[in-house]
Amino acid sequence: MVILIPLFVYLGLWQLDRAAQKRQLNASLESRRKLPALSLNGSLPNDDTWEFRKVVAHGHFLADRTVLIENRKYQGKTGFHVITPLKLDDNGKIVLVNRGWIPREQLAAVDAVPPTPDAEVTVHGVVTLPKAPAIVLGQPDDKGEGTPHWPYLTLDHFSAWSGLRILPMEILQSPDDADGFVRQWPQPRFSDTMHIGYAIQWFAFALIALLVWFRLSLHKPKEDGATA
Questions:
Q1: CA 127 from centroid of its chain's CA atoms
Q2: Are 44 and 115 within one domain?
């Protein structure tokens, strides 16, 4: 009991701390959403607060470096997310833009390329940091003809494939921008409910262990009577 009860209480407190961290992340997310859009042209701040920030960028799309992220769903249909790098005016930096969802049948041909504006564009959107899935079922295929079809996007792999030095972010383009596809991005939110539930379980285990200890400590086995 000296080991189990403190252990269960510690685990419960740890889960409560995780829940507090999730609430803090949500507060940080909301505060970033309320900030004015940050321009990516010109000098850029050197910090790690890019994710979930609203941004605006002016430049030209590099259509020949477009990549399609396959097996993306929208209203029950299968399609692609269209990823095109944008070369920024003024500073010449390059940032990846997720221009939205396009149905598979629209790009049925092997060498089909999504339509891309040739003129200078202004892109509005929200910053995200693409990551590989927890379980990788396939590797990006850089071979073959036409626009590459990848199962997922990572910044390192795109940079190695394209030979471009890109900013450490991806822009989810705003649905209000023109010349795009379907853009209904999920609103990220970190839930603390699961951690609170786990905390209650660990505290319940501690209480059960304490009650068992009381029950065993108060119970005295009967002594066998002497026989005549």
A1: 11
A2: yes
Amino acid at 42: G
Does residue 20 have a pLDDT over 80? yes
Q: Same domain for 159 and 52? A: yes
Pick 67 or 45 by higher pLDDT: 67
Domain for residue 180, yes or no? no
In-domain check, residue 184 = no
CB 172 within 8 A of CB 126: yes
User: 43 in a domain, yes or no?
Assistant: yes
DSSP 221: P
**Structural domain includes residue 33:** no
Which alpha helices (DSSP H) does the chain contain, by range? 4-34, 155-162, 193-218
Structural domain count of the chain: 2
Residue 13 structural domain: 4-21+191-218
Q: Would you say residue 57 has pLDDT above 70? A: yes
Q: Where are the beta strands (DSSP E) in the chain?
A: 38-39, 54-61, 67-74, 77-88, 94-103, 121-128, 149-150, 166-173
Lowest model confidence (mean pLDDT) among 80-84, 115-119, 198-202, 215-219? 215-219
Q: If we measure between CA atoms, which residue out of 105, 100, 99, 104 comes closest to residue 71?
A: 104
Which of 56-65, 89-98, 210-219 bottoms out in mean pLDDT, i.e. has the lowest?
A: 210-219
pTM: 0.71
β-strands 166-173, 38-39: how paired?
Answer: unpaired
- Statement to judge: residues 130 and 50 lie in one domain: yes
